[in-house]
Amino acid sequence: MPETAKLFARLLKTRWFVRAPIPLYKAGLGWLMGDRFVMIEHLGRSSGEPRFVVVEVIERDTNVIRVASGFGPKAQWYRNLTANGVAYLSTGRARRVPAHVSLLSPEDGDAVLERYAAAHPEAWEQLSAAMRELAGGKDPVIPVVEFTPPAP
Fold it and tell me: Distance between CA atoms of 113 and 107, rounded to whole angstroms?
């Protein structure tokens, strides 16, 4: 198990690997990734330029998508959302849908992660081990972000 976590952590730090799905979403082929992933378009906090990241959806409710920042609060996409709260989501056949950004409290985020772990125990085992590896063997801080349609 530790070797698998190290490999997974190494892949998550490999730029070409994590960016590979972005052209699929931009071409309208996000549905090929299934409903477990979403592309988030956000704005760079300094540049104001569009940035893109594809992450796993850890929970989905009616008009709500929740994702976790596996790299913790230092992930660039998370920092950008924290700074400006601008997000457009592409998932399945939906493209560039504006979304309201809510950064969940640690308690609410932990509850979401517990539900994810219960629903996907094998995926959680791999993912949590990789996140611990990325955090240097410590218990990682895993912020959860909730996306909803913008208020009318």
Answer: 10
Domain coverage including residue 141: 2-148
What pTM was estimated for this model as a whole? Answer: 0.88
| CATH number of domain containing 122 | 2.30.110.10
Q: What angle do CA 86, 61, 131 make, to 5 degrees?
A: 70
When divided into structural domains, the chain yields a total of 1
| Residue pLDDT, tens place only, 94-107 | 899 999 999 999 99
pLDDT tens track for 112-138: 999 999 999 988 888 888 887 776 667
Half-sphere exposure of 55 (CA within 13 A, CB side): 26
